[in-house]
Amino acid sequence: MGSVPVYRWRLAPDGLATRRQLRALGLRPGGQDVAAQVERPRRRREPLVAYLYRVEQAKPVRPMTPAKRVALAKANAARRVCPECRRDAGYVIPPTLGMCTPCAFPEEQRAA
């Protein structure tokens, strides 16, 4: 990616957008190459980098099919089931815990 132009934060020209900006417009990159990148400087660390795509070459977002909608609902439901007690926690299980909070901290439940 050494041949793409690099712009400073908020100084990219019109007609270029990040993936998130394209999605907000109902578009997707559609297989085009990265047109440029924007860098946001940070103290004592590497700058944050976002890739930019041409808006005029972007394609519309593909519509959600009924099969995709069902698959997404199943995946989201699976994220709520605790692998220890096999119950629906009522919230998405945090990946840091890997289980619902009553299973992760059983002594706090008995103390209360």
Walk me through the topology:
Blueprint: E1 6-8, E2 16-17, H1 19-24, E3 27-28, E4 36-42, E5 45-54, E6 59-60, H2 66-78, H3 101-104, H4 106-111
Parallel strand pairs: 1-4
Antiparallel strand pairs: 2-5, 3-6, 4-5
Structure description:
It is built from four helices and six strands; from the N terminus they run E-E-H-E-E-E-E-H-H-H. With 112 residues, the chain is an alpha+beta fold. A hairpin with a 2-residue loop joins strand 4 and strand 5. The protein is flat, with a radius of gyration of 22 Å. It starts with 5 loop residues before the first strand and ends with a helix.
Please provide a brief summary of the model:
With 112 residues, this protein is of the alpha+beta class. It has helices spanning 19-24, 66-78, 101-104, 106-111, and strands at 6-8, 16-17, 27-28, 36-42, 45-54, 59-60.
Number of helices: 4
Strand order of the largest sheet: 1-4-5-2
- Please count the beta strands (DSSP E, at least 2 residues each): 6
Radius of gyration: 22 Å
Name the beta content range: 15-25%
Helix content: 25-40%
N-to-C span: 57 Å
Provide the succession of SSEs: EEHEEEEHHH
* Tertiary shape: flat
Global structural class: alpha+beta
The overall average pLDDT, rounded, is 92
Largest sheet at a glance?
4 strands, mixed
Highlighted features:
single chain; 112 residues; alpha+beta; four-stranded mixed beta sheet; two-stranded antiparallel ribbon; 4 helices
